[in-house]
Amino acid sequence: MKITTILSSSCFWLFVLLNSANPCATVFYKGGNEKTEELEDVKRSHFPGGFLFGVATSSYQIEGAILEDGKGLSDWDVFVHKNGNVENGDTGDIATDHYHHYMEDIEMIHSLGVDAYRFSISWPRILPNGKLGDVNAAGIMFYNSIIDNLLVRGIRPFVTIHHGDLPQVLHDRYGGWLSPLIQDDFVHFAETCFKNFGDRVRYWVTINEANLVSEFAYEMGIFPPGHCSPPFGNCSKGNSDTEPLTAMHNMLLAHAKASKLYREQFQPKQGGVIGIVVNAFMYEPLTDDERDKEAANRALAFNVAWNLDPPVFGDYPPEMRRYLRNELPKFTSEERLLIRDSIDFLGLNHYGTLYAKDCTRSSCACSGSACVAGGDRAIRGFVSTTEERDGVLIGEPTGLPICYVVPRGMEELVDYIKNRYHNKPIFITENGYSPPQQEDQLDDLLDDKRIEYHKAYLASLARAMRNGADVRGYFIWTLMDDFEWTLGYGVKFGLCSVDRTTLNRTPRSSAEWYRNFLRKSPSSNNNNNNNNNNNTERRPTFSFI
Ligand code: FCB
């Protein structure tokens, strides 16, 4: 075990009692590099009435039934069957078999007492052919049943139209996200969703994490279609310096066209809201040097604002234009008008914080799990990232190689987003904890660390809100252990565990904690009337449209 790991784990979970008069109210948490953070005993009443608490999942990660009832193949269905693409040769062929267990899963969601459930629609289950052609009636029925069963239990469906699983035929036909032809095919899929489900769905996300998909699929080559070039990796196809930019450009325009269609043809009647979700790490400068401070700002621009500036301001971040010049695609003036202001809210999937180091003037050879090859290239903004400062980890490690527990990162990130986007409404669409894989799990169901994680991140979020951020909801990733992409089933994020042999679901302690956290306490002075299970009290209030 690395010395840094030992050091950080021994101090991370050491909560020092500070306020002896009220020992439960305030404790201090010591993170990497001796930074201290205040942890409060966070309560639901710290969040405003109408704030949505939920859990999140995605279609490929839970559904299984990959060729049932007329579904077509997704790119993930194909990718996982190629040797070496996923740890242990795991696949999502069965996943948690949610397709057959969805009623049981909805009961589980209901028992948590959440306000909302975020899930995604499998594109090839609805349009097996990827584009025009027959709509698969069985697919429509499946999601109709989920939506109806959520609503009768007073749970709001928060629907992601596309979360990773692209019809394979669209790669075969024209190269998936690399072709502008995909934009209209996506709009057709989105329109099919609005038409069939929009009478009951009030929260829509067009695309999940376009930034992460561009990077993982077209720069590092670890998501389908597995494109990359050196030094990022050795793939049989791809150009890591340019393809991520093209893929992102097409995803952004696909989003913008779908959003325009929704706003013109559906929103006035259906009254919902539409947004986009980004993978949002926080970056702190590695040193006090001005160059590292600028590097941290560039890391945010090249990762987060890359995805969010266009739908808010109509163009890519100036920080990117400065370093990428003509490599960065351009929006025509028409496209600019189309994409500008194309979201009602922005969704943040937040899992970690890293240190950023400038590579414009210093050499950026790096090692360690958070080091991404190519930090010294324009596509990465000449920034390298690291999890260590002076041999001390930024936070306790988790099951994901680049994610460390750094609760303050939530407040810092939300603050950054608030300032950059003039306080546009925010949802935390994912935040979650998976224990390190090698950790001895004496009892996998007693997941105290997950509970501490959510308490700490929620407290940090509450601080950001007290500082004025307009945050409307928080979704835990995830309801139950699922297929975690290239890491397969080894990484466990679930509030509920899933036995891989029997597929039995069992709630962990964290599920019990969330249920209690969400329960309206009689002494609470919160005027929130959305946290009981009375159907009639759960009418959506869309104060921001
Ligand atoms: C996010 C993905 C989600 C899940 C979590 C752990 O990047 O959106 O599907 O895998 O990571």
Structure, explained:
The chain is an alpha/beta fold and 545 residues long. It has one domain (50-351, 406-518): Glycosidases (TIM Barrel). It has 16 helices and 20 strands. The chain has helices at 3-12, 59-62, 75-79, 98-112, 123-126, 137-152, 168-174, 181-197, 210-218, 243-270, 290-313, 318-324, 333-339, 408-420, 448-466, 509-518; strands spanning 15-17, 26-30, 36-40, 52-56, 116-120, 156-162, 203-208, 273-279, 282-285, 345-349, 353-358, 383-386, 388-389, 392-393, 396-397, 404-405, 426-431, 471-477, 496-498, 505-507. Strands 4-5-6-7-8-10-17-18 form an eight-stranded parallel beta barrel, surrounded by six helices. A three-stranded antiparallel sheet has the order 1-2-3. The radius of gyration is 22 Å and the shape is globular. Beta-D-fucopyranose is lined by residues 58, 61, 208-209, 212, 279, 349, 430, 477, 484-485, 493.
